[in-house]
Specification:
Strand order of the largest sheet: 1-2-3-4
Number of domains: 3
Number of strands: 12
Strand content: 15-25%
Structural class: alpha+beta
Distance between the termini: 82 Å
Radius of gyration: 24 Å
Number of helices: 10
Shape: globular
Helix content: 25-40%
Amino acid sequence: MLALIPILILAAPQPARASRAAFQQALAHLKPNLSSAQVEKVLGKADRSFSVSFPNNHWRTEWDYGTTKENPFPTLGAVIFLDDKLVGLSGDKGMPPPKSLISEADLVHHMRMLTIGSRNAPGPLDFVRWANDLIPLGKQKALAVMKESDRVSFWPQEHLYWLVRVIFTVKSGYVFTVPTVGGKLSNDPPLSPVNFAQDIPFLRLGTVSMAGAPGSFTTYADRESKDWTIRPERLIMPNDPFAAFERVASSDGHGFVSYEEALEMVLGMVATAYAPSARATGKAGFDRCHQQYLTLKAYWDPNQQCYVRGDGSKLPPEKIG
């Protein structure tokens, strides 16, 4: 009679890329000082990597996961090595949104949309495009995209705090605050960094002092969002944004922005349809650019989310370098 010998079958480790939750768990189990070879064995090959040299022949290397050639934002997370030793992670903390709320494909799509634009100095057009991408999702899905973008990023996603003020409305008496290490910011004028005229979010970011590093956006949103209501419709830009900008500008320093600031913002908005023929400053420059813009009969195209000329054409993108 043959003896039955029990066979223990060990389940193979779940591949890190099997799901967003699996990748978060794989990141969370990584230990400091692992080598790049050890990390690659767990996470797989990075989608993007780059290295920076430091004095005394030290090297800092970042591996990003969930990027594309067109968009370098790491939608899954990232790891950092110093001299081939693991020293930093992003995407290892917190939990991704459930698939029952938003599919992985939709989540990644909108995370990437949220990272397109002038991230170092976002302008009104960036916020309009971000808002108009998220508003149709509804409150819970929009917040899921914003919180997940914050969760996987190494760097504080400060623009999310301002974006909240663009896509959500609040009841009278509610005060937006920005949680920071060492301070907070209210929406009491003139400290509010966002003001509206004809649906255009005017930004006064240059005058805002965070009084410390931003805290966790997810913690902030979880605590405050019960008082937020998402806008029912997308923002619609006026065909002549110069007129709206002039309402919040002044030459005596008492307006929401100066004419120089207003001109910089409005030219950024209409750059796909109009570029000034010469350098313009002050109210005289603002008025000259305004008249030149009007001759083009330009208008806001909601499908392309940009300004186009009267014949539907756009200016070619400005070459850098």
